[in-house]
Protein backbone atom coordinates (compact mmCIF):
# COMPACT_ATOMS: atom_id res chain seq x y z
CA UNK A 1 0.00 0.00 0.00
CA UNK A 2 1.39 3.37 -0.95
CA UNK A 3 0.60 6.81 0.34
CA UNK A 4 0.29 9.49 -2.31
CA UNK A 5 0.23 13.18 -1.65
CA UNK A 6 -0.54 15.77 -4.28
CA UNK A 7 2.59 16.74 -6.17
CA UNK A 8 4.83 13.99 -4.75
CA UNK A 9 5.77 10.51 -5.81
CA UNK A 10 4.37 7.44 -4.11
CA UNK A 11 6.27 6.50 -0.93
CA UNK A 12 6.04 3.01 0.55
CA UNK A 13 5.60 2.94 4.32
CA UNK A 14 8.08 1.06 6.48
CA UNK A 15 7.52 -2.66 6.73
CA UNK A 16 6.76 -3.94 10.21
CA UNK A 17 7.74 -7.51 9.31
CA UNK A 18 11.31 -6.43 8.61
CA UNK A 19 11.46 -4.74 11.99
CA UNK A 20 10.26 -7.87 13.77
CA UNK A 21 12.73 -10.01 11.82
CA UNK A 22 15.52 -7.59 12.70
CA UNK A 23 14.61 -7.70 16.36
CA UNK A 24 14.49 -11.49 16.53
CA UNK A 25 17.71 -12.02 14.58
CA UNK A 26 19.50 -9.36 16.62
CA UNK A 27 18.31 -10.76 19.95
CA UNK A 28 19.21 -14.34 19.05
CA UNK A 29 22.62 -13.28 17.78
CA UNK A 30 23.50 -11.23 20.85
CA UNK A 31 22.51 -14.13 23.11
CA UNK A 32 24.69 -16.47 21.05
CA UNK A 33 27.68 -14.12 21.10
CA UNK A 34 27.46 -13.45 24.84
CA UNK A 35 27.01 -17.17 25.56
CA UNK A 36 30.15 -17.88 23.55
CA UNK A 37 32.00 -15.31 25.68
CA UNK A 38 30.79 -16.99 28.88
CA UNK A 39 31.91 -20.37 27.58
CA UNK A 40 35.27 -18.96 26.54
CA UNK A 41 35.92 -17.24 29.87
CA UNK A 42 34.63 -20.00 32.14
CA UNK A 43 35.49 -23.27 30.46
CA UNK A 44 38.46 -22.86 28.14
CA UNK A 45 41.06 -21.62 30.69
CA UNK A 46 40.32 -24.50 33.06
CA UNK A 47 40.20 -27.03 30.25
CA UNK A 48 43.48 -25.92 28.74
CA UNK A 49 45.25 -25.92 32.11
CA UNK A 50 43.94 -29.32 33.13
CA UNK A 51 44.53 -31.10 29.85
CA UNK A 52 47.57 -29.15 28.55
CA UNK A 53 46.01 -28.25 25.21
CA UNK A 54 44.49 -31.62 24.52
CA UNK A 55 42.37 -32.30 21.44
CA UNK A 56 39.26 -31.63 23.51
CA UNK A 57 40.33 -28.12 24.46
CA UNK A 58 41.42 -27.34 20.89
CA UNK A 59 38.08 -28.58 19.51
CA UNK A 60 36.18 -26.57 22.12
CA UNK A 61 38.12 -23.44 21.21
CA UNK A 62 37.47 -23.97 17.52
CA UNK A 63 33.73 -24.37 18.08
CA UNK A 64 33.54 -21.19 20.16
CA UNK A 65 35.57 -19.35 17.52
CA UNK A 66 33.21 -20.60 14.81
CA UNK A 67 30.25 -19.31 16.82
CA UNK A 68 31.86 -15.87 16.99
CA UNK A 69 32.51 -15.85 13.26
CA UNK A 70 28.90 -16.93 12.65
CA UNK A 71 27.59 -13.98 14.66
CA UNK A 72 29.28 -11.50 12.33
CA UNK A 73 27.04 -11.96 9.26
CA UNK A 74 23.98 -12.48 11.46
CA UNK A 75 24.60 -9.14 13.16
CA UNK A 76 24.96 -7.43 9.79
CA UNK A 77 21.71 -9.03 8.58
CA UNK A 78 19.88 -7.81 11.70
CA UNK A 79 21.24 -4.28 11.25
CA UNK A 80 20.31 -4.18 7.56
CA UNK A 81 16.82 -5.50 8.24
CA UNK A 82 16.36 -2.91 10.97
CA UNK A 83 17.53 -0.05 8.78
CA UNK A 84 15.42 -1.12 5.80
CA UNK A 85 12.33 -1.39 8.00
CA UNK A 86 12.24 2.38 8.36
CA UNK A 87 14.34 2.89 11.47
CA UNK A 88 16.00 5.97 10.00
CA UNK A 89 12.79 7.65 8.90
CA UNK A 90 11.41 10.44 11.13
CA UNK A 91 8.30 8.46 12.00
CA UNK A 92 10.05 5.10 11.77
CA UNK A 93 9.35 1.99 13.75
CA UNK A 94 11.01 1.61 17.16
CA UNK A 95 11.28 -2.16 16.68
CA UNK A 96 13.46 -1.52 13.66
CA UNK A 97 15.70 0.80 15.67
CA UNK A 98 16.06 -1.73 18.48
CA UNK A 99 16.73 -4.52 15.99
CA UNK A 100 19.38 -2.47 14.20
CA UNK A 101 21.00 -1.60 17.54
CA UNK A 102 21.02 -5.26 18.64
CA UNK A 103 22.46 -6.24 15.27
CA UNK A 104 25.29 -3.74 15.56
CA UNK A 105 25.90 -4.71 19.18
CA UNK A 106 26.05 -8.41 18.33
CA UNK A 107 28.37 -7.67 15.40
CA UNK A 108 30.67 -5.76 17.77
CA UNK A 109 30.66 -8.51 20.42
CA UNK A 110 31.27 -11.14 17.74
CA UNK A 111 34.07 -9.12 16.15
CA UNK A 112 35.87 -8.69 19.48
CA UNK A 113 35.43 -12.41 20.15
CA UNK A 114 36.76 -13.32 16.71
CA UNK A 115 39.83 -11.12 17.24
CA UNK A 116 40.46 -12.69 20.67
CA UNK A 117 40.04 -16.14 19.13
CA UNK A 118 42.54 -15.42 16.35
CA UNK A 119 45.09 -14.00 18.79
CA UNK A 120 44.63 -16.86 21.24
CA UNK A 121 44.55 -19.65 18.66
CA UNK A 122 47.94 -18.57 17.36
CA UNK A 123 49.49 -19.65 20.68
CA UNK A 124 48.10 -23.17 20.49
CA UNK A 125 50.58 -25.86 19.76
CA UNK A 126 50.18 -29.53 19.10
CA UNK A 127 48.76 -31.58 21.96
CA UNK A 128 51.29 -32.78 24.49
CA UNK A 129 51.45 -36.51 25.01
CA UNK A 130 53.29 -38.20 27.86
CA UNK A 131 56.64 -39.59 26.85
CA UNK A 132 58.00 -42.83 28.20
CA UNK A 133 61.64 -42.80 29.04
CA UNK A 134 63.55 -46.00 29.56
CA UNK A 135 65.12 -46.59 32.93
Q: In words, what does this structure look like?
A:
- There is one protein chain.
- The protein is mainly α.
- The chain has a domain at 53-124.
- It is built from four helices and no strands.
- It has helices spanning 16-42, 44-51, 55-87, 94-121.
Radius of gyration: 22 Å
Q: Classify the secondary structure makeup into a structural class.
A: mainly alpha
- Weakly predicted, low-confidence segments: none
Mean pLDDT over the residues: 80
How much helix is in the residues? over 70%
Q: Into which percentage range does the β-strand content fall?
A: under 5%
Largest sheet: none
- Amino-to-carboxy terminus distance: 87 Å
Could you give the count of β-strands?
A: 0
**N-to-C series of helices and strands:** HHHH
**Number of H- or I-type helical stretches:** 4
Shape: rod-shaped
What is the strand and helix layout of this fold?
Elements: H1 16-42, H2 44-51, H3 55-87, H4 94-121
Question: What is the compact description of this entry?
Answer:
With 135 residues, the chain is mostly helical.
Keywords:
transmembrane helix; mainly alpha; 135 residues; membrane; rod-shaped; 0% strand
Amino acid sequence: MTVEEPGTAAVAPPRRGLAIASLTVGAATIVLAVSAWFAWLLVLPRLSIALHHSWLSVAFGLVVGAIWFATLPAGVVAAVLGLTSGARLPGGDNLGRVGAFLGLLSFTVGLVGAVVFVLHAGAWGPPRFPTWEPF
